[in-house]
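worker-03 picked up job from queue 'complexes'. Input manifest follows; four sequence lines, order preserved.
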Amino acid sequence: MARMAVAERRAALVQAALRIIASQGVAAATTRAITAEAGMALASFHYAFRSRDELIAELIAYVVENESLAAQRPLEPGLDLESTIRIGLLGYLDLVAADPARELAMFELTQYALRTDELGEAARAQYASYHAAAEAVVKAAADLTGRTWSRPAGEIARIVVTLTDGLTLDWLVHRDDEATRPVVDFAARALAALADPPQEP
Amino acid sequence: MARMAVAERRAALVQAALRIIASQGVAAATTRAITAEAGMALASFHYAFRSRDELIAELIAYVVENESLAAQRPLEPGLDLESTIRIGLLGYLDLVAADPARELAMFELTQYALRTDELGEAARAQYASYHAAAEAVVKAAADLTGRTWSRPAGEIARIVVTLTDGLTLDWLVHRDDEATRPVVDFAARALAALADPPQEP
DNA sequence: GTCTATAAGGAGATAGAC
DNA sequence: GTCTATCTCCTTATAGAC
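worker-03 finished. Artifact:
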């Protein structure tokens, strides 16, 4: 392979690893598989990274900054808060359904990080990123519907992430939109109940 | 090691594997580690099991039948429904906190099963067991407080499992009782709202 | 039946030719 | 800088002695 700046090579390896992890899981992302996917020689790996765990750490950092719920669609206007949340959650689950292996991989990454001493901070950073993304969405949902939250947005966001984690696992295990639907309805109603009573004009 | 019936040997290997997985994760449960933990020769493994995946399948079946929420403490009497649920959830999180590595391992097992073609059914069985355990608890909570659920108990149970999965991940990532507490309060309030209005005597 | 010994292959990491 | 070739270790699985 032609000359590449080390930074560029690192980025290419992270992307290759991400493709493997998203489709086959963390365990399948061996240095051999990653370099093959990137079209590089095996030795190039250790020219760019000191170890496999160093790549995983950088990969989680990349995911944290560029992925998470970034693909979230814009909220639909003209609905009440509960419907806005419900449709938002269903849209999120559509993303899960569109690439289940990838969503499974996000859980695996968190858990790999939690098992690896030096990566515990990476797991927390991953969730800090989820919380920030969720906070933006819950603020937007309140603005869009002219409602206010009865609790700090950060607390609402944490609840949203807890619910989406649970919903994601439920869907990944059963792959059954119908069966997950009542849980989505519950989540939307319960979240909407955290808003202050609507203003009388 | 002395003679053992094959069934007994299989059970001993499953127990050994469970100890390793609970403390060090699924990836650490190699046939070598398992047989060493069980005090057997390596070759004994393939005398009892055809492959490592066969053991994992039996291990999940064991977990499904004997563990899950079985360690749940009895509910406290004399409280209203929301408090009963809140204290039940906090008790569950105490179990998570008492052995975080084990709880992490339960997630890993599900995800390993979801990644392995022949084990997809095992993951669903694991959740069916969770749902059954949760259903028993939600029925007990309603009975204890003299309330009735506005939805089928199976649906309430599924919501409970979704919430506990999310709560467990939240706690495992942050290990912060204080930070998880508002999410527990939310879950208890939202679940209690699924009961019919209390009877006027 | 149970063990030691070993096969056969995959892993991370590196030396050294170019 | 980049690659081939290799080192060392660890994996699952099995053959064959006892």
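worker-03 released lock.
Residues 120-145 of chain B form the longest helix (26 residues).
Chain B touches chain A at residues 24-25, 27, 104, 107-108, 110-111, 114-115, 123-124, 126-127, 151, 155, 158-159, 161-167, 169-170, 172-174, 179, 182-183, 186-187, 189-190, 193-194 (CB under 8 Å).
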